[in-house]
Amino acid sequence: MLMAHPIVLQRLVSEYEALRDLQTQSQSSQTEQRMQDVTYTLCVSTGTRDIDTALIAARNQLPGARPEDDSVLAAG
Questions:
Q1: Please, what sign has the CA dihedral across residues 65, 44, 50, 38?
Q2: Radius of gyration in angstroms for the set of CA atoms belonging to the chain, rounded to a whole number
Q3: Lowest-confidence segment of 2-6, 48-52, 64-68, 71-75 by average pLDDT
Q4: Cβ neighbours of residue 45 under 8 Å, at least 6 residues apart?
Q5: Helix/strand/coil for 22
Q6: Which one-letter DSSP state was computed for residue 63?
Q7: Can you tell me the distance from the alpha carbon of 28 to that of 64, in angstroms, rounded to the nearest whole number?
Q8: Which residues contact 55 (CB under 8 A, 6 or more apart)?
Q9: Distance CA 65, CA 76 (A)
Q10: What is the rounded CA–CA span in Å between residue 9 and residue 44?
């Protein structure tokens, strides 16, 4: 499986979190579309099928993550 560069994953996670916060404040079609795009990209980049698992997988691939602790991924 191809793996996204950690910098790309960090940017995607940060953008997803910012969009999620923005979405709770105001509902716009542009925000919703971008949220769907980022969600899709995170899932493809991490080889997962849902955003919660994608976020966990992305965070585990970031610098400083403890890759030996994959217990959360095994539970899904």
A1: positive
A2: 13
A3: 71-75
A4: 4, 8, 9, 12, 54, 58
A5: helix
A6: T
A7: 35
A8: 13, 16, 42
A9: 19
A10: 11
**Whole-angstrom distance, CA of residue 64 vs CA of residue 51:** 21
Tell me: the pLDDT tens digits for 2-47?
778 889 999 999 999 999 999 888 888 999 999 999 999 999 999 9
Quick one: tokens of 67? Answer: 């890759």
Residue owning tokens 């079609």: 29
Q: How far apart are CA 70 and CA 47, in angstroms?
A: 15
| Residue 57 pLDDT level (bands cut at 50, 70, 90) | very high
pTM (2 d.p.)? 0.78
Residue with tokens 């910098």: 7
